[in-house]
């Protein structure tokens, strides 16, 4: 990979002026300061390895856009890792405990409702599903979701409201078909 001198100077200048801001950005969102340092390095690596040849006009804005994507990828990797660490024995134990506490017909109804809700979520448009899951399951505020998804708070509200209506309609329709 060859980099011309003007690009090298631009990246070097951006690194000197923006690196500490990127580290702060990641530290404010992560528990581990080592991860913040690593992810900040990843941002510059991605910039250096980008395939586009068009020049970047606002390097700071571009770097923070990359940082948002790096952060989302980091969270997704951690979620997958956490899910895979749950052992089958833990799931079996929880399932057995729940079943011993409730009536079998209630358990079946609950499982069917969860399945219908999962189906409803699968049929949502990807951005709407992402906003809804971040809000309902990850517990992020609407402003945090707007920042992460790079959309307005108003758009986040519309996504969440539309997702709720969609899920309710799907559950009502599927409930009538049982």
From TrEMBL:
Provide the RNA polymerase sigma-70 region domain boundaries.
15-80
Q: Which Gene3D superfamilies match?
A: 1.10.1740.10, Winged helix-like DNA-binding domain superfamily/Winged helix DNA-binding domain
RNA polymerase sigma factor 70 region 4 type domain sequence ranges? 115-167
UniProt lineage: Bacteria, Pseudomonadati, Pseudomonadota, Gammaproteobacteria, Enterobacterales
Map out region (Disordered) in residue numbers.
Answer: 82-104
For this UniProt record, the keywords arranged alphabetically read as follows: Sigma factor, Transcription, Transcription regulation
Q: Which NCBIfam families match?
A: sigma70-ECF (TIGR02937)
Check the record and name the PANTHER family matching this protein: RNA POLYMERASE ECF-TYPE SIGMA FACTO, RNA POLYMERASE SIGMA FACTOR FECI-RELATED
Instruction: Identify the species of origin.
Output: Providencia huaxiensis
**What is stated as this protein's family in its record?**
Belongs to the sigma-70 factor family. ECF subfamily.
Q: Which Pfam families match?
A: Sigma70_r2, Sigma70_r4_2
Which named protein is this? RNA polymerase sigma factor
CDD domains, sorted: Sigma70_r4 (cd06171)
Top-rank lineage group of the source organism:
Bacteria
Please give a single GO biological process term from the UniProt record: DNA-templated transcription initiation
Gene Ontology MF annotations:
DNA binding; sigma factor activity
């Amino acid at each position: 990979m060859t980099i011309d001198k003007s690009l090298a100077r631009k990246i070097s200048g951006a690194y000197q002026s923006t690196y500490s801001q990127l580290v702060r950005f990641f530290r404010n969102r992560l528990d581990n300061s080592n991860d913040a340092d690593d992810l900040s390095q990843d941002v510059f690596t991605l910039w250096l390895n980008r395939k586009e040849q068009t020049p970047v006009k606002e390097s700071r804005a571009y770097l923070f856009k990359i940082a948002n994507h790096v952060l989302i990828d980091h969270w997704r990797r951690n979620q997958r890792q956490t899910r895979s660490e749950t052992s089958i024995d833990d799931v079996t134990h929880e399932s057995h405990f729940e079943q011993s506490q409730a009536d079998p017909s209630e358990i079946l109804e609950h499982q069917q409702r969860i399945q219908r809700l999962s189906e409803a979520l699968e049929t949502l448009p990807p951005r709407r599903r992402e906003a809804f899951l971040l809000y309902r399951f990850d517990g992020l505020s609407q402003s945090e979701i707007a920042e992460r998804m790079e959309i307005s708070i108003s758009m986040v509200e519309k996504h969440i409201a539309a997702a709720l209506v969609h899920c309710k309609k799907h559950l009502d329709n599927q409930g009538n078909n049982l």
